[in-house]
């Protein structure tokens, strides 16, 4: 295993392609100098490479179990790994400075999270949830709650969880049943069961802060009757010390396909009368509080796809460079066997892995950039800019989540294939990446739901103007490439202009379908549309990276051109067939009563 | 779990689309009446549905372990299942009548194997290997060996294995090291280690017949110095009773991603001087013997993809019809939640699964038809017809193997997605299908190797005439559809004509590249070409099924048209982008030294 966090390439994509350097130059983050960015990424890369990555396979094999005493075991060394990581300040990267955080832009978190996921998806998903908890408390909790909990969540001394799902309430939270009864002293008794709770219980930290959605008595039906509560595993005394265990427990740990190092728990609240909870934000506004953190959480799950794709690619490339079978065409008959990387079919596999990984990394980092711009504009009170970037981030988020995680799985699967029979043997590690990657397409809103969000909520933003403005910006890079004197880059630009036409056409068609009262036709095309958008956007950002790296004579310039060229000629042509599926395929999706027995 | 073998649809595809009825009408199988075909399929379907399928999940959880006493454990009830199955005569379906087999066409085995794999991939792969052993012995072994072993392998009283792979000799068998030393009495001592041996050891049967590739002393280097040996687990006495244990053992059982019910063993031959083996066929001609059975084995692995796709599809559809989340667009706000199957995105997922499953089933059965035609022509001594069908089967086999297994994995992965979070929980079963399906893309020659075989060995058959004749035949069905009075079918025909143009163009381009001394360009496009071929051929066969089912007023007619229509508008347009990747993408695959550090 020769994994190494590719810090230089990631830094270039972050600074130049996403645009962090642009923000730094404009003085957006006075405390963040260019060399500090590099130093942080270098150090994160070192931690991912040396500390996290080597433990990934073993943690997968050990997994987490519910013990007889009701606690949940974690893999050997996992607690020490987490504590070393938190003590290194990594959990506090983006946390509010008021509570001990470093207040760094989300772009830095994106790059760091990319590396933690390269190291281990099962590790990185825990802190992702804590980050979300910090955000929800920071934006919605009372000063009292903030003072009591935020510092320790920011430092990582405690971890946070999100408790949304119930057996009958998954993607549709209307049916949620968990109850919250006011005690009268400002607290609530929480009673109910939640499922699929990531890092729901463990002993990595002394306390766990659960954010729980529940219904107040007489709350309106549906999602407008849901409130958000803070429910600590151990009650926190006024002096900050830990008191009694709260009335909650892990009632089960799921047996999953992957991310075995992450305990996915069924949580039982109120076996003995009710777990004590505190309201976050207003009554019946819990879903809005949750939605605040959804954007970031979705981006961070997208980055899981990026991270696992990177890891799988490195592993496959190392194997292909080492494993000898066959010879290149034309080699002497009696010559030695050569590394399989000489075979064109293996080259194609590895080029596909590398090009797609760069595409989804660029999209995800760019999404973080848009979220950072939003926060900056809000902080400045610049409403116009805030709206612009909020809409841009709104469009980018479902693409970053769904396209990146689809690619994560696809790349990890190609990685298995490159290993041949060894890929199917668990000890090799390639299968783990594929098993781990698979969940990211599902949680934080399935990729189908992301596609529906993109089509039905994001395309119509500002009556379609938001997406159209974005498409115009994208076309500028395509034209720059098409006008290049380098014939290879010019060809990429031309391919990209065609794909942009497909994307424009599909966008208009979907907007018209929605306006003309044919929402089912738009919904039927949502998934191919998200892929069409992702493929095109990824290519545009790779053009940007190629042009800028060439201008700046960055060490990655030649490689970026080769990857771009491969991408534009081999993968980008798919946009035409995706457009077909969207525009011509919808009716064939809906007129299927004969297939589904009239359902 | 509401799995049921879809016998009616399968029978129609087998008889009308593949062409079994055509052969029956021509009197190819005088003993096989139409109602016998139906009866056999019905009974196989019952066995798969009632006996195999219910044991699949539990067997996956239990797996196989190497015991301290050196034996390999199998899942509880597995031995009884296998024995009931063999006693039902299922193992003998295609075996030679001379040795107790039923001598049925391979098409019947294909449909039956489809069902065994629907029931459990981990089960079906065992008998697949026995079938291969029967074939190798029947075609190449001496009368003495046949008389001693064939009847019991045909009945399934004993099982067979194939021992090819060694740690340094996988896809490239040149480096094989296992030795065979002549004892002088007509036997050989086999010494060496083989890996990835499917059903390498178990106690389902009293004996296991290993077919082992090994090198004689002073054999030529490379694959022309490899011989094939029969090496029984227990020596068989002249009276047919079992004698001493041979000098071989399972030295390890792999910890795999899936098909846990199938023990994948490392086999050690000759720890104590040498396992006794008997030569099959001629010295140094072992690879040719192995290749005899390769075609059938590759088809049967392709059918694993078909079977697991069918099972995953049924499971996803049942879940989608039951699981309630959200409501269809336009439903009353206060209405109840509806099954997720009402959502267009879920419909798209299920239609994709169903359409692709029918496509790969049609291709696989058609491949079995071509193999049956070959055998028939050989039996008749009709050399011209034999050559024709041998070439046709040669073209169809890598497509049936690789396209079907790629689709098996893709469909199983969509199945996980339809289940949402539940799909990632092992107890649901959807994840098992995805884990199981993954191996079929790898073993019996990776799908990359199948693509290379298709492009470099099969396209050039009869100087390209074989494939061109096939393309002409395909175009006839496309034209028939295009000329249909049903506008929906006509549209499909038109789409298909376009895809056939893509396929024709790609075929010519690849043949030219090979002729012009640019094999690397052809090799670089092999994988997208195989997919282009598979997508187009699958659609053509679905057109055939749609037209014939409509003409014959078969119950599946309306459903076949709906699936075809979905397929042609949503999936078939991919052929254009695949053509692009083949023709324009090859150089971008090869000019990548800058990416791979000059390797």
From TrEMBL, chains A, B:
Residue span, Acyl-CoA dehydrogenase/oxidase C-terminal domain: 284-454
Needed co-factor(s): FAD
Domain of life (superkingdom): Bacteria
Domain annotation Acyl-CoA dehydrogenase/oxidase N-terminal: ranges: 38-157
Ranges where the Acetyl-CoA dehydrogenase-like C-terminal domain occurs: 487-592
Class of the enzyme per the UniProt entry, highest EC level: oxidoreductase
Catalytic activity entry: 3-(methylsulfanyl)propanoyl-CoA + oxidized [electron-transfer flavoprotein] + H(+) = 3-(methylsulfanyl)acryloyl-CoA + reduced [electron-transfer flavoprotein]
Ranges for domain Acyl-CoA oxidase/dehydrogenase middle: 162-270
InterPro entries recorded: Acyl-CoA_dh-like_C_dom (IPR025878), Acyl-CoA_Oxase/DH_mid-dom (IPR006091), Acyl-CoA_Oxase/DH_mid-dom_sf (IPR046373), AcylCo_DH-like_C (IPR036250), AcylCo_DH/oxidase_C (IPR009075), AcylCoA_DH/ox_N (IPR013786), AcylCoA_DH/ox_N_sf (IPR037069), AcylCoA_DH/oxidase_NM_dom_sf (IPR009100)
E.C. no: 1.3.99.41
Membrane-spanning residues: none
Alphabetically ordered keywords of this record: FAD, Flavoprotein, Oxidoreductase
GO molecular function, one term: flavin adenine dinucleotide binding
UniProt record similarity statement: Belongs to the acyl-CoA dehydrogenase family.
Role summary: Involved in the assimilation of dimethylsulphoniopropionate (DMSP), an important compound in the fixation of carbon in marine phytoplankton, by mediating the conversion of 3-(methylthio)propanoyl-CoA (MMPA-CoA) to 3-(methylthio)acryloyl-CoA (MTA-CoA).
Designated name of the protein: 3-methylmercaptopropionyl-CoA dehydrogenase
Source organism: Cohaesibacter gelatinilyticus
